């Protein structure tokens, strides 16, 4: 019984860490305000609600330690995938910001985006 309580405590602590990281990741794009943190907290709580519902259904049908381990592994992999998604979004944001400085998307290869989001160099 105490192992299940320890797992619930550790997973909740990890969720809190991910929630704080999500707020820090979004800060450069939409700022840090009450609306930002409310959105982050709302999304995390909605995710926890769906996860608890699905976890309850899975626990009723397949009650084993192996299933619990697979669920925790899937959660870890999804959190790990978040870093790749953030990098992709950051790169897309960087390109759009560079294009907005030029005025439009470059139509030929003479323009390339390098370095920081505000730097567009002519080759």
**Spatial sequence of strands, sheet with the most strands:** 1-2
Biggest beta sheet attributes: 2 strands, antiparallel
Count of helical stretches: 3
The SSE order reads HHHEE
Number of domains: 2
Rounded to the nearest angstrom, the radius of gyration is 21 Å
The N- to C-terminal Cα distance equals 66 Å
The total count of strands amounts to 2
**Helix content estimate:** over 70%
Structural class call reads mainly alpha
**Uncertain spans:** 107-112, 115-123
What does this structure look like?
This protein has helices at 2-30, 34-61, 65-102, and strands spanning 111-113, 120-122. Strand 1 (111-113) and strand 2 form a beta hairpin. The radius of gyration is 21 Å and the shape is elongated. Helix 1 packs antiparallel against helix 2 (34-61). 1% of the residues are buried. It is mostly helical and 123 residues long. Mean pLDDT is 76; it is low at 107-112 and 115-123. Strands 1-2 form a two-stranded antiparallel sheet.
């Amino acid at each position: 019984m105490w192992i299940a309580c320890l797992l619930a405590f550790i997973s909740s602590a990890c969720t809190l860490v991910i929630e704080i990281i999500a707020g820090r990741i979004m800060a450069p794009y939409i700022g840090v305000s009450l609306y930002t943190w409310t959105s982050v907290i709302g999304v995390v709580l909605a995710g926890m609600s769906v996860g608890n519902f699905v976890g309850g259904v899975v626990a009723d049908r397949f009650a084993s330690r192996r299933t619990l381990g697979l669920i925790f592994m899937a959660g870890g992999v999804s959190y790990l995938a978040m870093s790749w998604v953030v990098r992709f979004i950051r790169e897309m944001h960087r390109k759009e910001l560079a294009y907005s400085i030029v005025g439009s998307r470059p139509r030929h290869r003479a323009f390339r985006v390098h370095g920081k989001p505000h730097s567009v160099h002519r080759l």
